[in-house]
Amino acid sequence: MPWSLRDSVFYNREQKNIIEMIFPGSLRHHELLESYAGFFEGQILPGAKKIDEGEIFPKENLGNLVEKGFFALPFAGEYGGGEIPFPVYVAGVEMLAKACANTVLPLSIQGMVCEGILHFGSDEQKRRFLSEYGFVTGRNLIAFALTEPCCGSDAGAIRTEAVPSGDAYLLSGSKMLISNPGETAFALVFAATGRGVSCFVVPSDTPGVTVMQTIPKLGFRGNGLAAIRFENCRVPVENRLGEEGKGLEYAKHMLNHGRITIAAIGVGIAQAAFEKSLHYSRRREAFGKSISNFQLVQEKLADMATEISAARLLTYRAASLKYKGEDIAMGASQAKLFASEMAQRVCDQAIQIHGGYGYTDAYDIHRHWRDARMLTLGEGTSDMLRLLIAHLALKEI
After folding, report:
1. Shared domain check, 203 and 304
2. What is the pTM assigned to this prediction?
3. Would you give the end-to-end CA distance of the chain in angstroms?
4. Residues 188 and 110 in one domain
5. What pLDDT, on a 0 to 100 scale, did the predictor assign at position 6?
6. What's the whole-number mean pLDDT along residues 9-31?
7. Which residues form the domain of 229?
C-alpha cells in the first residue's frame, strides 16, 4: 500500500523556523498556518489525484478556500482582506501546493491580478473590483489574458486591439494559453491602444467574448487551458485599469508578484515528491535490504533536500522583500527560476527512486513531475528570467 502524504507534517519544521526568523515570537502566525495545514491535509489532499485523473476544475476546493478566507489573507482589511503578512501567506501557498497543485494555481493567478488592481486601480476600481465583485475574497475568479498566438514573452507585440468608441472601447483579437477562462467570471485583458498596451477588466459574459475549446496538456490537468476570442466587445472606459498605455508596466509588476507564489508552488510540489521518495526508499527492499541504505539513493535524497531548502529560502526572502515594500524584481525572478527548475529536478529524481513504479500511477509520482514542468514556462520562462536577472545584475554595477 503506497504511503500517503496524509501521514506527513504539513507545516514543517523548516517553514516554522523561517517564519520565526522573519517574525520572531509571532505565535498567531504559527497557529494560523497550523490550522490551514490541517485543513489542506484533511480536506484538499484526498481528492488531488482524482482531480488530475478526471481533469476536474477544483471548484469545490476553491469554494472551501473562499469560506476559510485563504484567498483574502495577504490583502488590506478595507477590501475584505485578512491583513496577514505576505511571507506567512506564501507559507500557506506552499502547503496548499503540496496538497493539490491544481487547487493552488487559480489562487496564484487571482492574487496576481488583485495585486495589479490594488496598485494601479483608482479608488473606485479598488472598491468595485476588489470588494464589491469579491476579487480579494475569491468569490469571483478572474483570468490573466496576456499571451497571444503570435507572442508569449514578447508581450509588446500583442495584436489584440482596443479602439475608443464614446464612453467605451471596442475590443477585438484573441488570446492563447489562458488558464481557466471558462471557469472565471472576468478576465484581465491586455490590448493595444493608441498610446500603447493597456489592460481591461472584462466580464466573461460580455457579448463578443468566446472561450474556445480547451487544449489538452501535460500537467495541471484540473486547470483548463484555452484560447479566448474577442469580437467588437464593448468594454466601458471605467474598466480600463489605470492609465492608457501603461499596461506592460502593470503586467511586469503583477508578474513579479506571481513569480513569488509560483516559486512557493514549486517548493510545495517538490516537498510532496521528496517525502514520498523518503518513505518509499525506507520501505522498498532490494538485494535483502532497504534501498535507503544504497549510497546512490542517499545521494539523490541529499540533493533533493538541499535544493528544496535553498528554493524555500529564496522564495521566503522574496516574499519578505515584498512585505517590506522593497524592489522585488531580482528576488522574485531568482526565486521563481530556481524553485521551478528545482521542482522539475526533484520530481524527476523521485520517479527514478520509485523505479518502474514511478512511471506508473501506483504511487502518484509522475503527477508531480507533470505539474512541475509547467512552472518553468508560466509567469516568465526560465530563459527570459535568466536574461532579466543578468540585466538587473549588470545594471547594479
Report:
1. no
2. 0.96
3. 56
4. no
5. 58
6. 94
7. 142-244
Q: Taking residues 7-32, what's their average pLDDT?
A: 92
Q: Over the chain, what HEC string results? A: CCCCHHHCCCCCHHHHHHHHHHCCCCHHHHHHHHHHHHHHHHHHHHHHHHHHHHCCCCHHHHHHHHHCCCCCCCCCHHHCCCCCCHHHHHHHHHHHHHHCHHHHHHHHHHHHHHHHHHHHCCHHHHHHHHHHCCCCCCCCCEEEECCECCECCCHHHCCCEEEEECCEEEEEEEEEEEECCCCCCEEEEEEEECCEEEEEEEECCCCCEEECCCCCCCCCCCCCEEEEEEEEEEEEHHHECCCCCCHHHHHHHHHHHHHHHHHHHHHHHHHHHHHHHHHHHHHCEECCEEHHHCHHHHHHHHHHHHHHHHHHHHHHHHHHHHHCCCCCHHHHHHHHHHHHHHHHHHHHHHHHHHHHHHHCCCCCCHHHHHHHHHHCCCCCCHHHHHHHHHHHHHHHC
Q: Which residues are catalytic?
A: 379
Predicted confidence (pLDDT) at residue 132 exceeds the cutoff of 50: yes
- Model confidence at 348: pLDDT above 50: yes
Judgement on whether residues 232 and 299 belong to the same structural domain of the protein = no
Q: 156-195, pLDDT tens digit by residue?
A: 789 999 999 999 999 999 999 999 999 999 999 999 998 9
Q: Is residue 137 part of a domain?
A: no
Strands 285-286 and 161-165, sheet pairing? unpaired
CATH of the domain at 18: 1.10.540.10
β-strands 209-211, 168-179: how paired? unpaired
